[in-house]
Design brief:
23% strand, 8-stranded mixed beta sheet, 10-stranded mixed beta sheet, 514 residues, binds flavin-adenine dinucleotide, alpha+beta, 13 helices
Length: 514
């Protein structure tokens, strides 16, 4: 029973961490009718959630570790997420060449049969066998690869998924405080007293909330011990993964899944129209996840492993960009990093009469929505009864800009080309992939390119910058060119400095929040 003489807390739920899990929980909670605050000490998705392989996938190889629950849940999420965000999520075909030394073809077929059938696949095309000598997918492969399989999963723009969850949460009343660190959280009876620090000004403020979620990803244990000053309810295993980007290696739209003799798998994925993404590595990490970067050994490993499959080798000199992230895995005691479970574990600490705390361990981008549902199922009995939407609503309502049919991108593109004939095709395509039907808010009534203001290069205009600052919490050029978009691949260092200056000017002009 709550104490009627005390004022109600400022929020029903406070969330630490603006990655996919924190923002997914914020969206679901706001839609259910809870008063939510989320704090992120840097930019949204600046942690692990912008450094993934960007696959919405069941994880074919997890079948080998008997992770049937995880694989089934993840497979089922593919079409759900594609349905709510068809601008940033789309189907991808995976070419899996059979490697005689790794496993027999019948075992692969069996695994793919399971993969096709345990996850409620309705729209994604089924697995098929590929004769690699005649199929175009075989053209870049060494001649010894004669048989392959092709199956379906999906691609996701990971950092945009995070921002769109935050945007939707805010549209439903949540407060999203970026550049805001949680520096302490203490129980005060049935509420939390939480101190937040603005990372731009150093200013601190205190808020109160009934429930608290620790969704700090790789920092979950640090936040538990240094901010909440509680025992970590579970162990987290930090596993580094890095990717390299090279100029486009082939012309078709499928991606490749390869496996090394040591069992580690990696992908070659068509990336940003002119590039190929290669990753990932998998190695235990010790240290500050904030300072992570790719090592020369990882670059060499990815080049060597790729070259073992391709007719033309990939070399370190070809790398135009790389990124690294740390998987915050639940430590299940596995020996090898690549064997540690990718499933999520939620720990609820809710002593009688005391404010509840939920800590998030592990998880995948793919399962963030289900993780959020489980988090709320755990927390709701300890929070004021909300009057909003029922459980499951996040799988039925579109993310911002995603309100068009999941197979309707080509129609949207054609209609938008008629509506905005002045936009070069690559720019229109990029804007629609990023903002979907919200493109109208960005372009306004413009009928010519000059009406979109200054052009910063690669199709980035002042109108887009203003939109990103106003609706997507962008505050630096890095937010814009590496997380809201990947225009950093096409812009020079000098152009990026000019974008930073322009952002500062726009922010100084006045209030920017919608
Ligand atoms: C190399 C790699 C490849 C992957 N590939 C895939 C894939 O293809 N598909 C898939 O489904 N999953 C993939 N994953 C897994 C997925 O990326 C992660 O599980 C997921 O992004 C974790 O999100 P999170 O919200 O828990 O953590 P994060 O995204 O790291 O978010 C935590 C946030 O908490 C903030 N924070 C920390 N301390 C504080 C504080 N005191 N106050 C305020 N904020 C704080 C941080 O700044 C950070 O932004 C991959 C992971 C890696 C590393």
């Amino acid at each position: 029973m709550s104490d009627p003489t005390r004022p109600p807390p400022d929020y029903d739920l406070a969330i630490i961490g603006g990655g996919v899990n924190g923002c997914g929980i914020a969206r679901d909670a706001a839609g259910r009718g809870l008063r939510v605050l989320l704090c992120e000490r840097a930019d949204l998705a600046s942690g692990t959630s912008s450094a993934s392989t960007k696959l919405i996938h069941g994880g074919l190889r997890y079948l080998e570790f008997y992770e049937f629950r995880l694989v089934r849940e993840a497979l089922m999420e593919r079409e759900v997420l594609w349905g709510i965000a068809p601008h940033i999520i789309w189907p991808l075909r995976f070419v899996l060449p059979h490697h005689k030394k790794i496993r027999p073809a019948w075992l692969l077929r069996l695994g793919l049969f399971l993969y096709d059938h345990i996850g409620g696949r309705k729209k994604l095309p089924a697995t098929r066998t590929l004769p690699l000598r005649t199929n175009p997918a075989g053209a870049i492969l060494k001649p010894e690869f004669v048989l392959g399989f092709e199956y379906s999963d999906c691609w996701v723009e990971d950092s945009r998924l995070v921002v769109l969850n935050a945007r939707d949460a805010a549209d439903r009343g949540a407060t999203i405080a970026t550049r805001t660190a949680c520096v302490s959280a203490d129980r005060d009876g049935e509420n939390w007293r939480i101190v937040l620090r603005c990372e731009l000004t150093g200013e601190q403020r205190e808020i109160t909330a009934r429930g608290l979620v620790n969704a700090a990803g790789p920092w979950v244990a640090d936040v538990a011990s240094e901010v909440i000053r509680a025992n970590t309810p579970a162990k987290v295993r930090l596993v580094q993964g890095s990717h390299i980007v090279v100029p486009k290696l082939y012309d078709h739209d499928s991606c490749y899944i390869f496996q090394n003799a040591d069992g580690r798998i990696f992908f070659l994925i068509p990336y940003e129209r002119d590039f190929t993404l290669i990753g990932t590595t998998d190695q235990d990490f010790h240290g500050d996840p904030g300072g992570i970067h790719i090592s020369a050994d990882e670059i060499a490993y990815l080049c060597r492993s790729t070259s073992a499959y391709l007719r033309t080798p990939v070399t370190p000199e070809m790398v135009v960009w790389s990124y690294s992230g740390v998987r915050p895995l639940y430590d299940d005691g596995s020996t090898a990093a690549q064997e540690a479970t990718r499933d999520y574990v939620l720990k609820l600490d809710s002593p009688a009469g005391a404010a509840p705390l939920l800590s998030v361990f592990g998880g995948k981008i793919t399962t963030y929505r289900r993780l959020a549902e489980t988090a709320l199922a755990d927390l709701l009995p300890h929070l004021p009864k909300p009057m909003g939407k029922p459980a499951g609503w996040t799988g039925r309502e579109n993310l911002p800009g995603g309100d068009f049919p999941s197979e309707g991108f080509a129609d949207l593109l054609a209609a938008s080309a008629t509506r905005y004939p002045f936009l070069p095709q690559p720019t229109l395509h990029r804007l629609l992939r990023a903002y979907g039907t919200r493109i109208g808010e960005l372009l306004g009534q413009a009928t010519s390119l000059d009406q979109l203001g200054r052009d910063f290069g690669a199709g980035l205009t002042e109108a887009e910058l203003r939109y990103l600052i106003r609706f997507e919490w962008a505050r630096t050029a890095e937010d814009v060119v590496w997380r809201r978009s990947k225009l950093g691949l096409r812009l020079s260092a000098a152009e990026i400095i000019l974008i930073d200056e322009a952002i500062r000017h726009i922010i100084e002009e006045g209030p920017v929040d919608p």
